[in-house]
Amino acid sequence: SSGINAEWPLRPGVAGITAKAGYPEITVTDQKGTKGGKLDLTFKITSKDTTLDKTQVHIVKASKDHKFTPARFTVSLTVSGDKAIDGEATGDDLTCDDQGGYLIYYSRIPPPPGHGKPPGSFLLTIEECRPPRGVENQPTQDPKITIKDQKTTQGASLTFEFTLESNDKVLSKDKVHMVKASQDHKTSPVRFTINLAQTDNKKISGSAVADKVSCDDQGGYLIYYDRLPPPPGKIMRRQGPAPPPGGFMINVEG
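The structure corresponding to this sequence follows.
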């Protein structure tokens, strides 16, 4: 049956990874709400190959036994050209029953990924409600770091973007760092050219460029603010520790 990994709701972050060739890329972030409050969620669906149809966009709530029920949110969709859809989902009077994992999908529910979150998945947590199992053991991420896994080929140039956003902190560009990680939790400086722009005092947008990518560039990387986060706990995924906030992979074909 079409299900999703039991552990995926427990890993906060951004779902923006393409499930397989031909499936649209769905970008959405985890959400927080308050009891009795309102949800206002935005997301984006893009495709390089397929002409998109907004009638094929669905949002469902996921259970740990891989069952899905339609989300109770009001969904508004706007088609930008024929290969991009901007979406908004709203909900009033949030309760603890609304907390949990959700999935935005196009046409069909994608197969479970080999690791991490399925594309289009996000977690909704409600303040004053008991956190989902595993979430209470995770540190609060501030600033929130948004970055996707990357895929490229040997000899190619790789360019990717990322953002850091805070609700409370005044951010400083000189505290933003990027390192390459090893399995023994050691880190080394990256060879990429990094450019940072201060959008306002609580948001930093960044880009990284690498020329002539080689197999040595493949592996796990980490963007962090001010200081390295502690290694993630192993309870978060059956396959091993989930990436900490700001962690991402670069896969090099060939």
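Confidence is low (pLDDT under 50) at residues 1-19, 233-241.
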